Amino acid sequence: MRPEFAEARRVVVKVGSSSLTTVPGGLDVERLTALVDVLSGLRAAGREVVLVSSGAIAAGLAPLGIAGRPRDLATAQAAASVGQLRLVQTYADAFARHGVTVGQVLLTADDLTRRSHYRNAERTLDRLLALGTLPIVNENDTVATDEIRFGDNDRLAALVAHVVRADALLLLSDVEGVYDGDPRTGPAQLIETVRDPAELDAITLGTARRNGVGTGGMATKVEAALIAAHAGVPVVVTSAARAAAALAGEPVGTCFAVMAPRPRARQFWLRFATRPRGRLLLDAGAVAAVRERNASLLAAGITGLAGEFLADDPVELVGPDGVVVARGLVAYDSRELPALLGRKSGELEPEFRREVVHRDEMVLVRRPDLG
After folding, report:
1. Is 80 exceeded by the pLDDT of residue 334?
2. Which of 33, 60, 127, 311 lies 20 to 30 Å from 9 when distance is taken between CA atoms?
3. Higher pLDDT, residue 1 or 136
4. What's the CA gap between 270 and 225, in Å, rounded?
5. Binding site annotation covers 220?
6. What is the CATH superfamily name and number for domain 3-267?
7. How far apart are CA 164 and CA 170, in angstroms?
8. In the chain, what are the domain boundaries?
9. Where is the PUA domain (predicted)?
10. 221 labelled ligand-binding
């Protein structure tokens, strides 16, 4: 058994388009209702649930007479506009039969990459839960641009799990879990537990089929699971049919064990939720100071920069070898910095002597692929 799931008081559950919809038939009400029954049972047992649900675009295809997932942005947004209404109304009706009130929360990646928006989302979700409502979160696909292909909500679910301080994250798919090969093409063994990302180094993870209704795949689920596991949240990846078993703590699917203590909200936001606006190139001495002595970054240790950014924008700190060392909020505009690079504080005018990135506004990126 997995007590971290059986005893979790607050759970985030993510379900993808492929588990809720079909291309010709739109929403599969029977499968959606089966999931609602499971989550309502969890609520009846006194546990809190946040549902992250894809499916808006797929649910809008049949009503609009569109065959297959749209390739152009405008059509995808139109399908989302029609489908989101149908998706949430179907959820609301299904949950109402169990006496559960739902609330819709539509987010874009921008809502979690901007600190003020991140905190607003946190307050809204906290209040919905305090009022006994089950939040249903989805990307706001009707206005999203590149976010519309954002991992089929897997990464969003990992971010939401930290925002609401969840005890566990369940990522539901149309396959049983993570395999050491592709079970569609040959023999493959289910991986029961992942305790270190290195355990997956030799495995090729699949992406979504091009003719399907989803945009994700196992690679996006593993990425999301590793983000959550490094943020102190245990994760199970399994099929929607095994949701009840997973939430009961039964050893189904693939479990990603906690790989690091839960970070402070600001550290998590800097590392996983920000989108860097540029890069600062560091010399070896600055890398050592930042990484080993937890020091602030000074202008003397910067050899160059890339991108255009404003003061207080997030930037990546990159060593001479091209490896990302840290991420932080820069104190200067990209137009101001070139005149400061490589100069000691005593050589600068008083208004330019402050740190370029203060250590309190910085987080180390120990695994660049998760940053």
Report:
1. yes
2. 33
3. 136
4. 18
5. yes
6. Acetylglutamate kinase-like (3.40.1160.10)
7. 14
8. 3-267, 276-370
9. 278-358
10. yes
